[in-house]
């Protein structure tokens, strides 16, 4: 069983930066891709970014140029570097890995 644990959320002012981390632990045979989604109050969960190991990264149009997804060398941790944050980025951010499911989420609040 694989567990995903997110960290790094918090309160930040508009224009600020945060880095989220998602660590996968447990019995991992092969990680092919990992991604980030977010869910704002009253809205559906939406795709943010994904990385396919050995392949391309993908981003939602709303975060292109501001967010960067990356992974560590071991391939069991994925990061989301968020810059130029806007109030509309406020949401619970979830890590996702095919075959493992979802992490518990980490709150990101962008407010002055």
Concise summary:
This protein has no helices and eleven strands. It has strands at residues 2-7, 10-12, 18-26, 33-39, 46-52, 57-59, 67-71, 77-82, 91-97, 101-102, 106-110.
Structural write-up:
The chain has 112 residues and is mostly beta strands. Helix content is 0%, strand content 54%. The protein is built from no helices and 11 strands. The protein has strands spanning 2-7, 10-12, 18-26, 33-39, 46-52, 57-59, 67-71, 77-82, 91-97, 101-102, 106-110. The strands form 2 sheets. Strands 2, 4, 5, 6, 9, 10 and 11 form a 7-stranded mixed β-sheet that branches. Strands 1-3-8-7 form a 4-stranded antiparallel β-sheet, with no helix packed on it. A hairpin with a 3-residue loop joins strand 9 and strand 10 (101-102). The chain is globular, with a radius of gyration of 13 Å. The termini are far apart. The model has no long low-confidence stretch (mean pLDDT 93).
Question: How is this fold's topology laid out?
Answer:
Elements: E1 2-7, E2 10-12, E3 18-26, E4 33-39, E5 46-52, E6 57-59, E7 67-71, E8 77-82, E9 91-97, E10 101-102, E11 106-110
Parallel strand pairs: 2-11
Antiparallel strand pairs: 1-3, 3-8, 4-5, 4-9, 5-6, 7-8, 9-10, 9-11
Helix content: under 10%
Question: Can you write the helix and strand succession as a string?
Answer: EEEEEEEEEEE
Overall pLDDT level: 93
Assembly context of the chains = single chain
What is the makeup of the main sheet? 7 strands, mixed
Give the termini separation: 40 Å
Number of strands: 11
Task: From the structure above, extract its key features.
11 strands; 7-stranded mixed sheet; 4-stranded antiparallel sheet; 112 residues; mainly beta; single chain
């Amino acid at each position: 069983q694989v567990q995903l644990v997110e960290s790094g959320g918090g309160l930040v002012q508009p224009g600020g930066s945060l880095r989220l981390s998602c660590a996968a632990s447990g019995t991992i045979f092969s990680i092919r891709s990992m991604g980030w989604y977010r869910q704002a109050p009253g809205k559906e969960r939406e795709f943010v970014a994904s990385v396919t190991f050995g392949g391309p990264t993908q981003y939602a149009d709303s975060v292109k140029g501001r967010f960067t997804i990356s992974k560590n060398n071991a391939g069991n941790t994925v990061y989301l570097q968020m810059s130029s944050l806007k109030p509309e980025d406020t949401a619970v951010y979830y890590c996702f890995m095919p075959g493992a499911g979802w992490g518990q989420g980490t709150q990101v609040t962008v407010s002055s």
